[in-house]
Task: inverse folding
């Protein structure tokens, strides 16, 4: 079941550079506490089915509709990243944070969820919201932050929310979403529903207190929550081996008495099946699972970052050869259910819709100044009333 070419596999770990730089030395340091002799990579083998050339081993038979839906959304996600990053470079939006390279981790898991499940996201998973039904125009309106934005421009770009599809507002403070999801899962359990709460977070978030609170409480109370850890190996400029001395991140489940698994995060089928299995267990009352989705942040952390300042090109190159879109495309082409023409057609349609929503949102008026003071209190307290009056009268003076 283990796909041998994945750079995460021990035998594929090679020194990244021969020039002996501190960075290269750090990168080959085994992630393993000296005091332990358990091999956690063996205890948590990487679940993987698809290879880069389209061949697969013991692959679960997913419906063609699901496979094609995942493929389309992975292609859309990459396109959205490219287009909105360009808008930021052109000075038309202030900021963008995408998920290039992590499409299988996001889309594969989204495809395995049910409409009633709850998603408590990090900031990269806009494609999960799109998969669940959030209109593209809402994602685009949010990056422009104008009057047509659901949150009326009061959030940073890429901080979407979709009440209609149980997609909570994005959490920027690293890790806070983990304990929120645990609470939602607990509510689902108390209400005796079969809904599952799902949260996405990064390797950096495993060092936050919320990781401990969330996983510990979920373990004690057998809460139906899925902890989807996108291990993309970097937390802005902090590499994984500076984040933890654990050999794997999945093994952290042991301490909390919950299940855990390491999954090839660049294999959409493996992510789909691992998520489905974990959700099924949660729905049956078997509690939480930590899934370490082993993937890689191919690009910058966000448009405010330049990773060339801190990471080795050779590392990036090794992971580019494991691209999740290439892999799923090869598999679907081999099954005879995808083609260059099919991809070009769906991409053309997506691009047209994206261009149209970008024009519409860019042309939308700015939010009314009064929206700065609304939506927090049902009855506005006196000090807000005063501040609103002051702001409005200053505006009148400027006119
Ligand atoms: C509590 C807190 N500390 C620092 C930051 C600044 N910050 C934003 S994203 C980030 C890195 C998070 O890395 P990781 O959890 O691995 O997620 P990734 O961005 O790789 O998906 C940091 C340090 C923050 N938003 N919140
Ligand atoms: Mg990370």
Result:
């Amino acid at each position: 079941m283990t796909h041998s070419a994945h750079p995460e596999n021990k035998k594929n770990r090679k020194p990244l550079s021969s020039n002996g730089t501190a960075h290269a030395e750090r990168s080959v340091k085994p992630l393993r506490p000296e005091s332990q002799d358990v091999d956690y990579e063996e205890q948590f083998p990487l679940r993987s089915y698809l290879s880069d050339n389209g061949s697969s081993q013991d692959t679960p038979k997913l419906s063609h509709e699901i496979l094609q839906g995942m493929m389309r959304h992975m292609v859309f996600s990459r396109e959205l990243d490219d287009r909105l990053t360009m808008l930021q470079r052109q000075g038309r939006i202030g900021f963008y944070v995408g998920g290039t390279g992590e499409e299988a981790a996001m889309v594969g898991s989204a495809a395995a969820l049910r409409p009633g499940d709850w998603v408590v996201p990090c900031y990269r998973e806009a494609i999960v919201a799109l998969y669940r039904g959030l209109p593209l125009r809402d994602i685009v309106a949010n990056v422009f932050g104008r009057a047509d934005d659901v949150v009326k421009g009061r959030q940073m770009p890429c901080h979407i929310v979709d009440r209609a599809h149980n997609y909570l507002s994005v959490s920027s403070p690293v890790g806070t979403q983990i304990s929120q999801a645990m609470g939602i899962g607990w509510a689902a359990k108390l209400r005796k529903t079969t809904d599952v709460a799902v949260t996405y977070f990064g390797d950096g978030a495993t060092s936050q207190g919320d990781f401990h609170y969330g996983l510990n409480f979920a373990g004690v109370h057998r809460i139906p929550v899925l902890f989807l850890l996108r291990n993309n190996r970097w937390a802005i400029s902090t590499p994984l081996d500076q984040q933890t001395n654990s050999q794997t991140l999945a093994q952290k489940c042991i301490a909390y008495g919950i299940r855990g698994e390491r999954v090839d995060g660049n294999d959409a089928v493996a992510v789909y099946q691992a998520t489905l299995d974990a959700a099924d267990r949660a729905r049956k009352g078997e509690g939480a699972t930590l899934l370490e989705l082993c993937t890689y942040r191919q690009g910058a952390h966000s448009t405010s970052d330049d990773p060339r300042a801190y990471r080795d090109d050779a590392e990036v190159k090794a992971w580019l050869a494991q691209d999740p879109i290439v892999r799923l495309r090869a598999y679907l082409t081999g099954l005879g259910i995808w083609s260059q023409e099919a991809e070009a057609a769906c991409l053309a349609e997506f691009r047209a819709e994206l261009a149209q929503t970008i024009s519409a949102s860019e042309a939308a008026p700015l939010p009314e100044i009064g929206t700065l003071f609304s939506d927090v209190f049902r009855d506005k307290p006196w000090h807000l009333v005063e501040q609103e009056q002051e702001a409005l009268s200053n505006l009148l003076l400027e006119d």
The first helix runs from residue 22 to 28. Residues 379 and 385 are 10 Å apart (CA to CA). Residues 12-28 have pLDDT under 50 and may be disordered. The pocket of thiamine diphosphate (ligand 1) is lined by residues 122, 124, 172-174, 201-205, 230, 232, 234-236, 297, 301 (CB under 6 Å).
